[in-house]
Write the structure tokens for this entry.
Amino acid sequence: MKVNSTDVQVAQVDADAIVVGVFQNSLPTGPAAEVDNATGGVLSRLIEQKEITGKSYKLVPLMGPMGISAHQALVVGLGPADELDRGTVYRAAAAAARRLAGKPRKRVAFFLSDNWSSDLLENSIAGALTGCHGQDLYRAEKKRHPFDELVIAGVDGDTLSAGEALGDSVNLARRLVNQPASEIYPESFAGVAGEVAKQCGLEIDVWDPQRLQSERCGALLAVAQGSARTPRLVIVRYAGGKRGAAPLALVGKGVTFDSGGLSLKPSEGMADMKCDMAGAATVLAAMQAIARRKLPVNVIGLMGLVENMVSSTSYKLGDVLTARNGRTIEVLNTDAEGRLVLADVLSVANEEGAAKIIDLATLTGACVVALGTGVAGLMTNDQSWCDRVAVAARVCGERVWQLPMFPEYKEQIESGVADIKNIGEGRWGGAITAAKFLEEFVDETPWTHIDIAGPAFLDKAKPWCDAGGTGVMVRTLVEVARQWDEKK
């Protein structure tokens, strides 16, 4: 898809469709007011008749309106004017693009900006790009049709490039999550990472099973040993900051399919387990966006990639594993495998000299029980670092909520035969006990864990996103990198 800017007035632009925004309980302003004037007050009358409400993401199409050159004007609700933020414009633009991408179109022009900041414009561009793509990767008849050309009004070249990089990266994460495990497995994911690294000028290192063995990654290797698909650890490095400055480390869980192992999941619990590598997909996508935007920060992305399968070589309940940092782990549930993978990858991040760490994982159903499907859980060993991550998420309009990490939770992962065990005691506090397990592998490095089990994958479509992978937290990670200050 070509992405261009335009200075042509909204009523004169040559396009299959134009998109304008209206605030809730408000008369048209900016480009919407221009459309209103050009059409003899059509928008004002529809607002008066409450056909257009301006409520967030509500869409009203005007077909062939007299007075404008475009074949269609699509009005999207922006919600209350005093609540406009990056999340709102991202979702509004995505909702409009998703509606218009229901059929092939050559040229669609977005006129949402009413003297918006570059941050708002970047996110509107990203939203427009993501709304055009769905999960229909293998359908003969596609439900979403990316436009031949996307035109954005009121934007300069730098902002256009930044927004395009952001949207492309969210779509990368979504595509990886939506592809089946027959297509995305550890080796093929590493291949995609290699392509991204080559295109973006990233340094990449891929650890194969022999290297993982020599690096003492016993926890990760144990999870992988039941699968014919051999594991990988992918490390990508971006050096945009001061030479020698300690990097921000982004760590992603990449279980490309999770059967549960010998603690086998039921069919309904296994159906969408192609999404269990969403953490790794998010990290790779964020690294792509950070590199394309040339942010002045050093970042290292680490992705632990395995399949958790059932065979005669599967790791077993009662096994005692030795992780890379020397901690011994009693296995009491082979379906609590993501934390075992992350244990070794977090250890590598520490050895790389990370200044601070963020890990992302579709880690626990318990987090979904606690927070629902639309909110990611935050857990940390350093409150100031967690606060910075939470602020970045809030700025981007991505929902997060912090869960406590009281010392008492650690008691639940103490083992009688090893240093720790891989599950807590019973059903209670499962998201937190999983995080307490991970905390054992970060030493004193400031670390925040983001459990994205809820928002990483949609069972049903939203106005702004098809069902399937969402690319959640890509924008937040890029914002963390934008705000990076090595002195803090």
User: Anything to note?
Assistant: Residues 180-482 form a domain with the Aminopeptidase fold (CATH 3.40.630.10). The two ends are 40 Å apart (CA to CA).
